[in-house]
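Look at one record.

>
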Amino acid sequence: MSAIRTACEVSPCTAKLISLLVFSRIDHIGIAVADLDAAIAVHEGTYGMRVVHRETLEEQGVEAVLFDVGENHVELLRPLGDDTPVGRFLAKRGPGLHHVAYQVHDISAALSRLREDGVRMIDVAPRTGIRGSRVAFLHPTASGSVLTELVEPATVHR
């Protein structure tokens, strides 16, 4: 039986070791928004954050904005169209938490390990993400109904 699928059945120490073999830290949380400028205004005006990066990712069908929170990030995602993954998410669920992203040192190795453990994936190979990172998504059914992203940064941003 898979070590990752049975992590809840092992000791907390063993479960932590299994997690460290795949994830190094939380990279960011992704929030789907319909009005990017209004969401930026809330994060800047109410929370006192500042935009550290803004990028349109045609391949992903989003415009993304990053805010730093310590060594982690909040990523706001505005769909470029209704027929994109984030556009469909907004139509079905409305604005809100879209995904949790974990940083990995070697995304190919992490995907291989998860595939060997039978984890259901959306992406079997990495694709290009924000700031030139390499990213891949795990299917929500593999992680308690939470869309999970793996991120291997092109460079570490803190």
Observations:
- Residues 1-11, 13-18 have pLDDT under 50 and may be disordered.
- DSSP finds four helices and eight strands in the chain.
